[in-house]
Amino acid sequence: MAKPKKKEKQFTRRDFLKASGATLASVVFFNALGGCARTTTLTETVTSTATTSATITKTATSTAAATDITTLTPTPTTRVITDMAGRQVILPTAISRIATVGSVGVLNGFVFAMGQASKVVTGLPPNFDVPSWKYQYVVAPNIKDLPKVQAQGSALQIEELLKVNPDVVFTMDLTTVTTLENANLATVYLSWTQAEDVKQCMTLLGEIFGEEERAQAYIQYFDDSLNKTRAVTAAIPEAERVRVFYGTLSGLNNPHLISEWWIDAAGGLSVTRDIHTTESITVHSEDMVLWNPQVIFFSSAGELEAIETDARFAQLDAVKNKRCYLIPKGVHTWGNRNVEQPLTVLWAGSRMYPQAFESIDIYTEVKDFYGRFYNTAISDDQVDEILSGDIASF
Fold first, then answer.
1. For residue 193, what pLDDT is reported?
2. pTM score, two decimals?
3. Homologous superfamily, domain 98-213
4. Is 231 exposed, middle or buried, given 0-12, 13-18 or 19+ CB atoms closer than 10 A?
């Protein structure tokens, strides 16, 4: 039987927005299911405004548990990368226009640390128009007047995103990946669920931007910072480890699972470590009294003032000994998953064990990080502002 001829189709991004699901279904990314039976192969050439042209070869294996595998073949002006969802993505050989969607604060931090701030073509969403996000603009002043592609509440405005014509869009949300794919936008999924995922993330970004050495430098810095902290805390007996709570007392919650990791990495004993299995957890005031944390790290401004008048927690060791601290915030809040996480560990250790950490100068660490990875020189006063955690009232 004669082989079917390749079919040439010319699409623009807007054509893809109008196209039916049947058209897009022919280029859907792979679905990792088991099984092996009959195999069909379809080859077609698609030309888009973003990625020039590329040959897409799809091999579909169908059973009750079907396997659908897509292999993408680059052209002289494109290449294929595999993102953190295992998806193959065609990107231009050189990236000059970057969009971030969804967890913009986190994603921008990654992009900035790879030295790519000047290539970002999307502004911060409306809910970022507050003083606390100041250091996004300090590191990347070019983003201040860029188009907003997310509405209030972070709803994606796909038409606005199409207008900025990005070479690549980064997101940390799989639902958004589908929306962006359907608009024929080259989309890379990044993920950070485990502490070590940041290394995979930076390695992938190094490949995408041709900055492999910079990515490895960050990974080395990450490991060196943890080793530096361990060298200090290794001599602290388990019985003398500080009990720590991270979150809010007004809302009685710990909003970020990653806090269990950085508290432990800094040498502390998180009082919620045995119950914290989802991203955010709620606790009870009775739990706090029972746990009696010796140090409290607050995740939002206003908590320090509130704790002074909250009779429920007046007898907590952290409150009596005035060892309650607001988590710092630079490009992103340090208590969240963010590229500045090594600084979180060093800072938290210095608050829990100030005498043991006397040899570590957190001012020098912060200034070195900003200079080395963000290409931004900051002053001692700016470090004070970051460490205060309350930029809006600093």
1. 80
2. 0.81
3. Nitrogenase molybdenum iron protein domain (3.40.50.1980)
4. exposed
